[in-house]
Amino acid sequence: MAEKDVFGRAGEDRAARYFETLGFTVLARNWRCRGGELDLVVADDSVVVAVEVKTRRGDAFGHPFEAIDARKRVRLWRLAVAWASAHGDVVHGRRLRIDAVGLTGADPSTALLEHLVDVEVP
Prior knowledge:
The chain is α+β, with helices and mostly antiparallel strands. It has a single domain (3-60, 71-108), classed as Trna Endonuclease, Chain: A, domain 1 (3-Layer(aba) Sandwich), CATH 3.40.1350. It contains three helices and five strands, in the order αβββααββ. The protein has helices spanning 3-21, 70-86, 88-91, and strands spanning 25-33, 36-43, 47-56, 95-104, 112-116. The chain has a five-stranded mixed beta sheet, with helices on both faces. Strand 1 (25-33) and strand 2 form a beta hairpin. The longest helix is centred in the N-terminal third of the chain and has 19 residues, at 3-21. The chain is globular.
């Protein structure tokens, strides 16, 4: 696995642990379908959340959330709906939303973690 992939996976691990501390259960990691991939899918009693995780060593390429443009947000929503369709029994009675987690720092385990709740879809 390439170093950047290991770095990104470490960021996803940190994001998964973060959501668990908030009382969420991780339902899926790196879920793929024809339309792309969801980094994480987590849920609590009232909501199922598709989570996009962006991990950066620094801000040379901008803030991690800057990578989630309008096109990416639409794609994430389509993927979340596809996941929900494939797992209707899990979603039933819960709201579906998109969140983003940005991690910035040399080491994902200690990087600054920012959580953007309910990413707007254009």
